[in-house]
Amino acid sequence: MKLEKFRLVNPGEGTAYEFPGFAMTIVVLVSSDDSDGQYSVFESIHEPGSGAPLHIHERQHESAYVVSGEFLIQKSNKPVQRVGPGTYLHFPMGLAHAFKCVGETTGKILFWMSPGGFEKFFATAAAKIGSGPPDMAVMTEIGKEYDSIIIGPPIAAAE
After folding, report:
1. I need a surface site. Which of 34, 82, 122, 146 has the fewest CB within 10 A?
2. Which residue segments constitute the domains of the chain, with CATH numbers given?
3. Segment 68-94 mean pLDDT
4. DSSP 103-148
5. Beta carbons of 138 and 125 less than 8 angstroms apart
6. Residue 55 forms beta bridges with which residues?
């Protein structure tokens, strides 16, 4: 099937999901519906200290570009690395990884997931958690449904 939708997302647009309990906001720029299921693109905006625990995607590749801020990145059991704006990362399916915003300022990462569909994780999480307190048990269950298997804790300390 040939995709014939043109997509333009201006600054401040996109579908935003606020997770104040996790100190993060997700803004979906391209959903799997927009890309014929091929990929999804979203901004992940984090206050210092927030991020994602060690997890894997068994069916999706994940690429990321650090737009602003400083982040700690962990892949598998390798040492944690500090990265900043302009850094590109690719986590092939099956590679365990985690990230954490560190430093003094809000950080933003642009994520590309292929194939698409992972944006539905955020829509479901927003519906179940909303602006309530962080609930890792709920996030873990939702993750199983959308190919985000949590296998370890968040990155512990700033390096």
Report:
1. 82
2. 18-150 (2.60.120.10)
3. 95
4. SSS-EEEEEEEESS-THHHHHHHHHHHTTS---HHHHHHHHHHTT-
5. yes
6. 97, 150
